[in-house]
Amino acid sequence: MDTTEKILERDWSEEFDKLAKNRMIVSHYKYGWCSQTYPELAQAYKCIRERLDLYEKTGNMEYLVDIRNFAMIEFMHPAIEGAYFKAEDSDKSPGLAGGISYKELMEEKW
Description:
58% helix
């Protein structure tokens, strides 16, 4: 059986978290407190779309770190009226876009 440690060791990136945290600190000195900007002066979720387009065009993974940070900012300071968090069952998930997981592939194969 897989342990939490094994799962995170293989499927989690500490480097990604470190890059994201470092960029939040730098951004604080450039732009100030998030709570003073979002959502009244800027909307974080709109920045996500722009960065995703830039990542698709350039392949620069820095934009993925930006997306992570803007998603967190939107979570903390939502611009969408009535935004909420509710854990949903798998049947409500959009799933993998245009693909299948390795596990699903193996289960179908046998």
